[in-house]
Structure formats: C-alpha cells, structure tokens
Amino acid sequence: MIKAILFDFWGTLAEQGVYSPIKQVRNILRIRMPFPEFVIRFEKAMMLRPFNDLQDTFLALGEELNIKITRREMDDLIGMWNKSWMLAERYPEVEDALKQLKEKYALVLVANTNKSYVEKVVEKFKLGSYFDKVFLSYQEGIIKTDREFFLRVVQELGLSVEECVMVGDSMQSDILAAQEAGMKAILVDRKNARDYTPKIASLLELEGVL
Predict the structure, then answer these.
(1) Is 122 left (phi over 0), alpha (psi -120 to 50) or beta?
(2) Which of 87, 91, 116, 174 has its C-alpha lying 20 to 30 A from 123's C-alpha?
(3) The model's pTM
(4) Are 57 and 46 in contact (CB under 8 A)?
C-alpha cells in the first residue's frame, strides 16, 4: 500500500523559464564533452553543497572542468540561471492535484539543485505547504540519481520502499534511479512521447494510476 509520493520538481511540477539551462551552460562555456558526462560533472560541482552566491557556484564548476570562466561568460551564466527560476511556470494542474493527493498520502519533494534555486520557485508559487518533507541534493550532499538518496528518504520517512512511489519526468534521474532502489516509479510524459508503463500526461491522472 502506497503511503508516500515523491515528486521531482522541474518538468514535473514546474517548467523552467529558459530552455534546458544545463545545455545552455554547456554552450556558454563551449564544452565539447558528451552531454551525459557533462551533466554528471555539472551536478557534482554545483549541486552537492551550498555556495554563497551564483558566482561561487559557477566558479566551482570551472574548477571541476579545469577551465577559467571569463567575466562575460560569468555574466551570461548568472543571467540565464536567474531567468530560469524567475520566469518559471507552474503546470496548471499542480495545485489541484497536490491538494487532492495530500488528503491520502504524505507528499515529498526531491530535487537535484543548487542553493535556493528550487526553493525560490516553491515559494513563488506557494507550494511549500503541500509537502511533508523536502530533500534537496545540495543539503543532502548526494544526487538523487544515486540509489542511496532514495534509501535515505525512505529511512527518514520511516517507511519501506514498497510504501513509496516516485513521480518524475526523467527516465534517468527519476524513474531508473528510483527503481534501482527498489521503488515503484511513475513517468510524467506530458507529450505522450515515451514508451513506458505506468505513465501519466497530467498529475490529475496520478490518483487513478495509484
């Protein structure tokens, strides 16, 4: 019996204000390495600990990649990253769905993020009251693609993996990561473009799948 629902944030509850911020970082810095490898190193550098500000955050990425970030590149990075959360949009059904689900389940927010990035958008849309627990990578010191992340969440909830379900839009960082920890996972596929079961196109469909 499912007692808790874990929600990814970006692509599941909210849409970023600019197209693929991580890809834009890669382009601004003219990084040639394969994108999957870049994502791993990006998250390792920026999302495992808190920084004082975005400049320090991107300087850490530069150290990880062994590159020097110019003043112009830094301005472009910070400007784009701020637009990403400032122009973010909540998916229209989110509040109704969370309100409905909270009556029956514990709701948990899990996200890979640097300091304040997700929290600012959660505050902007007043979503914080819907979540019983929040687990963010920069606070936990671990990325949610690591099975240990999910096991830690389950332990802190006082539940078993069988009593929890992960809901997210990424096969790699949401679905497969949760399954590796032994947890059920539901894919949010708003464009109905991927072959996976179970999946939903709207969070309002979630209760029926559960």
Answers:
(1) alpha
(2) 174
(3) 0.94
(4) yes
Q: What is the dihedral of CA 32, 60, 46, 158, to 10 degrees?
A: 140
Q: What is the CA radius of gyration of the chain?
A: 17
Peptide bond preceding 92: is omega within 30 degrees of 0, i.e. cis? no
Tens-digit pLDDT profile for residues 9-48: 999 999 999 999 999 999 999 999 999 899 999 999 999 9
Q: In percent, how much of the chain has pLDDT > 90?
A: 95
Whole-angstrom distance, CA of residue 66 vs CA of residue 109 = 33
- Domain 4-16+88-209, what architecture? 3-Layer(aba) Sandwich (3.40)
β-pair partners for 109: 7, 134
Long-range contacts of 19-22 (CB under 8 A, 24+ apart): 21/80, 21/81, 21/84
What is the amino acid identity at position 25?
Answer: V
pLDDT at 30: 97
Phi and psi at residue 187, in whole multiples of 5°? Answer: -85, 130
Residues, the chain: 210
Residue with tokens 């300087």: 59
